[in-house]
Amino acid sequence: MDWPTRDLVAARAAATPDRTALIDADRDESITYREYDAAVGRRAAALAGLTDDDTDRIAFILDTRPAFAELFFAAMRLGVSVVPLNVRLTPAEVTEQIERTDPDALVCESATAATATEVFEGPIASVDGTEQDGVRALDEIDGPPVEPATLTAETEQLVMFTSGTTGRPKGVRLTVGNLVASATASAFRLGVSSDDRWLCCLPTYHMGGLAPVVRSALYGSTVVIQREFDAAETARVFDEFEITGVSLVPTMLTRLLDAGWEPPERLRFVLLGGAPAGEELLARCRERDVPACPTYGMTETASQIATATPEQAAAHEGTVGQPLVDTTVTVVDEAGDPVAPGETGEIVVSGPTVTPGYLDPAVTEDAFGPDGLHTGDVGSRDEDGRLWVHNRKDDRIVTGGENVDPGEVVAVLREHHRVRDAAVVGLDDPEWGERVAALVVPEDGIDLTAEDIESHCRERLAGFKLPRTVAFAEELPRTASGTVDRERVRERLRDRRG
Question: How far apart are CA 395 and CA 49, in angstroms?
């Protein structure tokens, strides 16, 4: 791939400078691609003034806002990789990710400035005015004008963290080629028009929130950024800004429907990811003429792997559709051999959207085989290539679109001096898809309460990782081979919740 050779906003501004590029839904402000290009240029100059010529990576600890989009493309203009950090993580969790990525600078906002100074010793700048010691105001940094760096398909553009089986989040490296291939494949599946308006109300530090920002710039269409999802406000944004597409997790769509939302006529797709879209929700969508598209994707593939049209989802219950163009999906057995249609196995993915690897070379080596990236998800395909995703091989929990690794939560629970052992699983939850649940074994003769466990975890884990259901046992249920019997753990926890 010889294109793009420079950042997407610079390329788009040269082609369609007067099109609307970005709308700030909270402030009802919009900018053209010419103005977007100028804003990216100012941000790039400020970042250049914050760092030095040898900068490789810049970390962001920013929530969803237009400044995130400007800064992402400013980093691309500099030829620098971005490390978006989840603003919901604890300082200890952020510190671990900072240490693993070794960024040369960090950009924060007023709400995260205190965390920034706690976790990072290098140059820090805030997109807001700041009174925090050690934090400069980014708008007050003067740097030299920046000429767009020359990019290639192999240029690392992004490092995002996603939960895995090792007990700590995996750092996923994504290239310019990955992002462009994903945007191109998505356009073939969902369609694209120059007057599209893709609403971004998911966190931009996740792939589901960042993808619309990247894709809209590539397409020359408009991204509408809403800082935070709210059913009533988001419903208003749909109507006021004539939204044609949106990415949501099922919980968000459920809340919109519960609030009485009716889709506008121009709405072409609702891309549903981050958790399985239940048949009840999809049936409600068909009743309301909501064009829901169940999708299966990963950070490791820069978003979508397979996506079902509303018609496919109605005709083939539970499917996430066929793989996107240039994406190859193979279902393999435990020996790594492909299985026949209808048979279940691990989903393996290859193609230009797939990450070149993780931060840890050993993790990369373990994840890739002859057929591509082993996803850890269990699924099956039919004769026409439609894909069904049945469960997660590594028992990751997906709650409200956030990935939680049970091993990470277990490790925190075992740090409690009164806890001898613990098991963590996901329980079905009508609002969040799944909730984190823990079966805890106290030390002999020790009385513990759920409040004790929550207090211990709250200091060490992000809110979405906290066990919401806690039960206690003298021993963990185990299989004949000695491993934890996760289904029996679930049964005990379901009884506790009831």
Answer: 45
